[in-house]
C-alpha cells in the first residue's frame, strides 16, 4: 500500500512532518482541526512538500528522519523541490534561449528571428 511523507507549514510559520496512506484525507483532517495537536493550534496549514513511497512503512521511516532535522535543513529540502518544479516548468522559447543551460537535440535547428 502506497504511503506519503509530507511537510505542512502552519499559520505561525512552523513545520509539521507526517505520513499517511491517504494524503488528501489527511490534509483535510489537519485543516478541520482533526489532525495532530501541533497543527490544530496553528490553523490554517498548507502543504509545502510531499514524497510518495511504495509502502507506508517507508514513508513513516522518512517522516521520522526528517522530524530530526533542523528547520534550515527542512527549508533546503522544500526549496529544492520548488526549484525543481520551477525548472521543469520553465519556458524554453526564443526569449529564454540565451538563459537556457541545457542542450537541444542536434537534429533541431537553432532559433532564428521570426520563427
Q: Which features would summarize this protein structure in a list?
A:
UPF0213_domain, 115 residues, endonuclease activity, single chain, 3-stranded antiparallel beta sheet, disordered C terminus, 20% strand, GIY-YIG endonuclease, alpha+beta
CATH class of one domain: Alpha Beta
Low-confidence stretches: 96-115
Largest sheet: 3 strands, antiparallel
Structural category: alpha+beta
How many angstroms does the end-to-end distance come to? 49 Å
Helix content bin: 25-40%
The side-by-side strand order for the widest beta sheet comes to: 2-1-3
Number of helices: 4
- Fourth-level CATH superfamily of one domain: GIY-YIG endonuclease
- The chain-level mean pLDDT equals 81
Task: Report the count of strand segments.
Answer: 3
| Secondary-structure element pattern, one letter each | EEHHEHH
Named CATH topology of one domain: GIY-YIG endonuclease
What overall geometry do the principal axes of the alpha carbons give?
Answer: globular
Amino acid at each position: 500500500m502506497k504511503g506519503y511523507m509530507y511537510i505542512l507549514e502552519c499559520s505561525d510559520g512552523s513545520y509539521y512532518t507526517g505520513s499517511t496512506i491517504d494524503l488528501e484525507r489527511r490534509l483535510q483532517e489537519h485543516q478541520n482541526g482533526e489532525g495532530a495537536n501541533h497543527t490544530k493550534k496553528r490553523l490554517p496549514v498548507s502543504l509545502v512538500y510531499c514524497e510518495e513511497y511504495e509502502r507506508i512503512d517507508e514513508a513513516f521511516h522518512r517522516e521520522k528522519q526528517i522530524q530530526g532535522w533542523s528547520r534550515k535543513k527542512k527549508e533546503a529540502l522544500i526549496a529544492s523541490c520548488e526549484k525543481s518544479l520551477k525548472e521543469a516548468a520553465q519556458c524554453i522559447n526564443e526569449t529564454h534561449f540565451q538563459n537556457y543551460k541545457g542542450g537541444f537535440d542536434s537534429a533541431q535547428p537553432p532559433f532564428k528571428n521570426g520563427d
